[in-house]
Amino acid sequence: MIRVVLPQHLRTLAGTGKEIRLEVDGEPTQRLVLDTLESAYPVLKGTIRDAATKRRRPFVRFFACEEDLSHCSPDEPLPGPVVRGTEPLFVVGAMAGG
């Protein structure tokens, strides 16, 4: 069971609570978790990743186990605590500007 924490605006869009629990088939990677998330909540397609290219949107970041996973390969296995469900995968909207 993979735990995913979304920012407030995506929770509102998807009509969910703070944390979503997903059953993922196969070795959990960012790509597989996001594919599963978008399948369970189709309204999120195109919000976290570009709908056509599946690349992470520029101002979206992924964190787990106090590490920024945003620039890791989407096919790299997720950290053990995330896979075991003891730590969540955070989807965070980054801030920019001045």
Descriptive notes:
It is a single chain. With about 100 residues, the protein is an alpha+beta fold. The chain has one domain: Ubiquitin-like (UB roll). It has 3 helices and 5 strands, in the order E-H-E-H-E-E-H-E. Strands 2-1-5-3-4 form a 5-stranded mixed β-sheet. A hairpin with a 2-residue loop joins strand 3 and strand 4. The longest helix is centred in the middle third of the chain and has 11 residues. The chain is globular and about 35 Å long. It starts with a strand and ends in a 5-residue tail after the last strand.
Spatial separation of the terminal alpha carbons:
39 Å
- What's the helix count? 3
- Give the % helix: 10-25%
Q: Which CATH class is shown? A: Alpha Beta
What is the average of the pLDDT values?
A: 94
The name CATH uses for the topology is: Ubiquitin-like (UB roll)
Which class best fits the helix and strand makeup?
alpha+beta
CATH architecture group name: Roll
Supply the CATH superfamily name.
Beta-grasp domain
Give the strand tally: 5
* Element-level helix/strand string: EHEHEEHE
What oligomeric state do these chains adopt?
single chain
Give the strand content: 15-25%
Radius of gyration over C-alpha positions, nearest whole angstrom: 13 Å
Shape: globular
Strands of the widest sheet, in order across it, are: 2-1-5-3-4
Largest sheet: 5 strands, mixed
Low-confidence stretches: none
Number of domains: 1
